[in-house]
Amino acid sequence: MDVAVIGATGDVGRAVCTQLVERRILPTSSRLQLVGRATGASASATYGLRADLVDAFDEHAPLIDVALSPADVVADVVVLVAGRTVPTRGSEATDRAALAADNRQVFLDYAQALGEHGSGHEVVVVVSNPVELAVATMASVLGRRRVIGMGAWLDTLRFRREIAVTLGLRRHRIGGFVAGQHGNDMVPLWSTVRISGLDPEERALALERLRRGRSLATFTDEIAQAQAALLSAAQDDTGDAFALIDSWPPDLRAVARPWLTHQSGAKTATATASATADLVETIFDGREIVVAGQVALDGEIAVAGAPVRGVLGVPVVLGPDGWTKVLLDELPPDEDARLGAVAGRIDASLEPWGLSQGEGRA
Hints:
By secondary structure, this protein is of the alpha/beta class. The protein is 47% helix and 21% strand. The strands form 3 sheets. The protein has a 6-stranded parallel β-sheet with strand order 3-2-1-4-5-6, with helices on both faces. A 3-stranded antiparallel β-sheet has the order 9-10-11. The relative contact order is 0.13.
């Protein structure tokens, strides 16, 4: 199988390419296609990246080539990392709207090129933001089962890690998923959390301690208050701001820590690339595995009393042909209500681009 990384020379694109090769996800018989633009600095940087990767990993590198036109993208798995990124400081809501305006045409150009010139079997892993808009755009051209956004998987890994740290465990001992929208509108599904070595009664007691009697009904307000507190603390000492995060519950930390990391100017390229490489590896593996991802739904689940027809982050079964089904049991009231509200907000954000499915949620 071959992989193409669209936007290979950006911060995240470089990290994705490096991890795909360094982790030996691609065997030497596969091809890694680095996709850039024919204009500007992108073309020369793409050739330079190819040389650097070969130099670093010559003993086990796959065949690496360069494509500078959407029409030349050919691969079994396409990783979409192209487009403008979120500024390291500023309003997330404003940034999402600006990103949508700037990146929509990029998404559409590559979707149409793959639809016209591709094999018809590519699986697209979306990294670009807004991930929900990119998924909706790609799915509208290529078919919804072949497109998955990695945002919910990255949020899931962060959530699991924060739980594990609190319990003094490693992340692989923790199960559970995050749904919803990537970022502030994530929905931590506490009802799906499993802790290796604990029976149901012990797990229930542990989760009660972790949640501290809180409900997701107040989660939006908690996030806003946390971000305001972090901005204030970081003015004096960024280290103190990160220490403040450690005093909060795991679900709030899972939102606040990457937010402050980005605000600090460090960005989150390494974690993003690692989660993306996980999904590519899952597709390459040939087995079906449960992950979380942003996908285009058509009534597979209902939340807040209405079927979801639109993009939403949910646990799905992912395999070599894309995602096949959603795995989501009936949710507790607070999770169900928040997920329904988030689904509505995502759908409203897609309306300016003619991708809203609001009628289906009536």
